[in-house]
Amino acid sequence: MAAIETVGIVGAGAWGTALANAAARAGCRAVLWARDGAQVADMASRRENIRALPGIRFDDRVSVTARLADAAAADAVLLVVPAQACREVAREIAPLAAPGTAIVSCAKGIERGTRHFITEVIAAEAPDAATAVLSGPSFASDVAAGLPTAVTLAAHEAGLAERLCDALGGPALRLYFSTDVRGVEIGGAAKNVLAIAAGIVEGRRLGASAKAALIARGFAELVRFGRAFGAKAETLTGLSGLGDLILTSSGPQSRNFALGQALGAGAAPQGKLAEGAFTARVLVEMAASSGIDMPVSAAVDAVLSGRLTVDGAIDALMARPQKAEA
Ligand SMILES: NC(=O)C1=CN([C@@H]2O[C@H](COP(=O)(O)OP(=O)(O)OC[C@H]3O[C@@H](n4cnc5c(N)ncnc54)[C@H](OP(=O)(O)O)[C@@H]3O)[C@@H](O)[C@H]2O)C=CC1
Ligand SMILES: O=C(CO)COP(=O)(O)O
After folding, report:
1. Each residue's pLDDT tens digit, 166-202
2. How many CA atoms lie within 13 A of 119 on its CB side?
3. Catalytic one among 191, 232, 272, 323?
4. ipTM
5. 1.10.1040.10, 3.40.50.970, 1.10.10.10, 1.10.10.60: which CATH number matches 189-318?
């Protein structure tokens, strides 16, 4: 199999822009697509994405385009739009990409309604593509600044995962390969919901002990869910599971944590993309239909939907029947 030399990045938000620069620094030609022609023109003239990642200059190997076909023609395509938009964008990419092109999900979430993981969405819309997922503890601003970061890249075909890691990895971005696609997707989706819970604890000023307890019990339910849906234990305790839960629950640099913090403080949310707000309901639905107990995620869903107040949710969690730790 030929090496991956060109990478199309579909979605020029914070993460897509950071990944374009990372791919370019790794030696690939990176073609960054945005849907908004005015944004593309601005990025082309400034060599910077003022809207999503200000202050980071594009590497010389990054080009920008408003033509999806330019990005879809690359050896591999990174799909970096919000999870709920992946289906419509994958559908547009499908006829433009050569058969066998790798389409890598970089979004963190589960599709509402269908309850499909994003690689399943891609496989349904682009059946001739090879699917993969990239996930792990990685703030776009850290990766863009060239700070040391490690993430996981999983594909069902081990060789593809290794080739993608070879292409995208560099001195500051270390990629571990895996074939546990489902495990990597579950960690990325569930940790966002749990990070909202951690933010609520912070915003309501419940203390460091409560936050640690909540993260630990949240991780226990992430593991329960993961096991039930076929994830490997080492994936759940690895970068894309525990690693990303730690990062995202650590402070307001995470948009999910910041949303929770606003909810806990009774303040207005910032309005930025917080994937956990879209994932909470579908995660809880999937857990319930498989008989998996996920009280922290259910509490987040209840607060987000207005069925419980923050204080009501905390009281309910603390009043649960005594049980063995598991
Ligand atoms: N930011 C981060 O640190 C990380 C983010 N991620 C994940 O990456 C995904 C994207 O996040 P991020 O880049 O931060 O989000 P942003 O909100 O910064 O950007 C989202 C991008 O997607 C575009 N977009 C939204 N809807 C559509 C659509 N229907 N069709 C085409 N383009 C669309 C937006 O375009 P427009 O501006 O025109 O609306 C924008 O360019 C999320 O799932 C997130 O969880 C993963 C790891 C790190
Ligand atoms: O996924 C992320 C870090 O790994 C980014 O988290 P937020 O989307 O909460 O900002």
Report:
1. 999 999 999 999 999 999 999 999 999 999 999 999 9
2. 22
3. 191
4. 0.99
5. 1.10.1040.10
